[in-house]
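Why does residue order matter? Because the sequence determines the fold. Keep that principle in mind as you read this record.
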Amino acid sequence: MPDEETQSKYIKALDEIDPEIVGDRDETEIVNHGRDQCASVKQWPKEQAKLVELTAKRFKAPGHSDGFGATKNKLILAAVRKYLCPEY
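Structure:
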């Protein structure tokens, strides 16, 4: 788990992309989606299209059952990489 400051920055970054990403869900759930995404980043670090597809599957919200679209999914992936797994 990220420390409190890192988690806060991650959640803020997602809110800036689209407030519905986090919505009223438990922030731990959102962090866990990101951590799961980190496992995928580690496994397929150079397969951007696959990682964006997995982002769409992990980050959903009411009205966004297929994710948040390619542009926002790329931004979500960038936030995950920056705050949760910068070493990948």
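The mean pLDDT is 96.
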